[in-house]
């Protein structure tokens, strides 16, 4: 019986440190994710100073985690750092409106989830809003509705920018580059897209590329406990997209009028 007890003790001595390390690793990852979510909730409530302090605290914890675990690649660290810097800047910019602050911190929140979640990443839950807005872009182009096309395209670009860091973290490089190239073409040659049916084929191609993207990254079901985050974030985006897109369009038209006066 003594030898059985000795073997059991040896097994426990070997397993316990590993288990403790795994628990510490998991809790540290979850802590980073939790901080990013809490920061987003503070921004939604317009508590910008508190959100800024929490984002600065995140920076310290992220640095500590990466030094201890070395589990993030250089690209992952760079992408997260850029998204984090944008979020902090949004909290310090007194001229930035509430909707844009939410967008910046949402971008950061989704990026953190993309590298910490073991389930389906939250950004894939944005498929509905993205495809819905893009359908409006395509419809406006096909009908030749100039003002609506520019407004809806700006809305789509705002939403695309929000999930872009997360895409780069989770999707194949070739897929992201392909979508990027199509979006840049459509944005740069807006008048041509509106007037040329051949160029409008790019809209169809981009729509299919976007569907392929979400299909590739949505094979597993998301954790049910995370769906409230997807729904909440998606609702905010849907409400603010039209406002942001319209404001950007009006700003561009005003700049054009000022140039003509000069």
Chain-wise SSE layout:
Layout: H1 2-44, H2 48-69, H3 74-92, H4 98-116, H5 127-143, H6 146-170, H7 173-188, H8 190-195, H9 201-217, H10 227-261
Gist?
84% of the residues lie in helices and 0% in strands. It has 262 residues and is mainly α.
Descriptive notes:
The chain is mainly α. It has two domains: 32-116, no CATH class; 119-262, no CATH class. It is 84% helix and 0% strand. It has ten helices and no strands. It has helices spanning 2-44, 48-69, 74-92, 98-116, 127-143, 146-170, 173-188, 190-195, 201-217, 227-261. Helix 2 runs antiparallel to helix 3 (74-92) and helix 6 (146-170) packs across helix 10 (227-261). The longest helix is centred in the N-terminal third of the chain and has 43 residues, at 2-44. Residues 1-26 and 220-229 have low confidence and may be disordered.
Share of helical residues: over 70%
Overall body shape: globular
- Backbone structural class: mainly alpha
> CA-to-CA gap between the ends?
96 Å
| Total number of beta strands | 0
Helix-strand string:
HHHHHHHHHH
Regarding quaternary structure, what we see is single chain
| Low confidence ranges | 1-26, 220-229
Strand proportion: under 5%
Count of domains: 2
Global mean pLDDT = 80
Largest sheet: none
What is the radius of gyration computed over CA atoms, rounded to a whole number of angstroms? 22 Å
Q: Tally the helices.
A: 10
